[in-house]
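Quick check before the chapter quiz. The format below is the same one you will see on the exam, so make sure you can read both the input and the output lines.
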Amino acid sequence: MARVLVVEDEHGLNDLIRSHLEQAGHTVRQAHDGLVALRVAGEFEPELVVLDWMLPGLDGLAVCRELRRRSLAPIIMLTARHDERDRVAGLEVGADDYVVKPFSVPELVARVRAMLRRVALDRTASAPGQGLVVSGPLVLDTAAVQATVAGEPVSLTRRELDLLELLVRHPGRTFTRDFLIDRAWGGAYDGLDRAVDTQMVRLRRKLGEVGQCIETVWGMGYRFRPGWGMPPSPSDPGGDGSCPGQRSTGSLG
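Here is the expected output.
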C-alpha cells in the first residue's frame, strides 16, 4: 500500500477517487489547486500522484514539471483533452500515464496498482546483489563500476555510471537537469547545468551508437530511449538493434 496524492479541483470527483483508493488500502491526501498540491507533496512525500491537467492557479503541466524536479514518484495525469499533442506534452514534462475523462474510477485504481507494482519491481532490481542493468547490447555492472556495449568494455567514471544507470532504469522518463544535479552532485550550485550537458556529451561519445539513445528534451533535461541506433545485442546477432517506429524530430541534442 502506498501514499497517494490526489490533485483534482472537482471536489466530488476528488472525494470519489480518494474513497476508492482508501478502500484499496492506500493512504490518501487531497489538493484542489496546483500551489496547494506542491505544498502537500513537500509535506506528504507521496509515492504516487494522481494529477488533473486543468487546475486553478498553477495548471497540471506546471505542477507535473515541478514534481518531477523533486521526485521519481510516478504521476498519472487526468485530462479532458483528447488531442494526441496534449498527451505527448504531458508525457514530455514527466507524466507516466494518462487517463482521459470521463473514466472509470475502478480502472484508475487498477492503473495505480499496476504503476506501483512496476515501481516495486524497479526497486527490487536496484537492491543489493542486483547490480546488473541490461538494455539491448548495453550492460551496466553497478557493483563493479563497469559497462560494456556488445561485449566491449566502456570506461566510465562513477558519476557517469550513476547518471547512465538512472536513465536506463527508467526508459522514456525525462529527468530535469536540476534532478540530475541533485542525484549526481548532491545539490545545485552555479555552473552545474553546463556540467550536466558536458557529462551527457561525454557519455554519448563513449557509448558510440548506443549514445544516440540518450535524448535531449529541450528546455527540460534528458531521457533514455532504448533501441534507436543500437547495434545488435550479442544474444541477438541477427537483429539490427533498431526501435520500432520513427525517431521524433528535433529531440536529440
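If your answer matched, good. DSSP finds eight helices and twelve strands in the chain.
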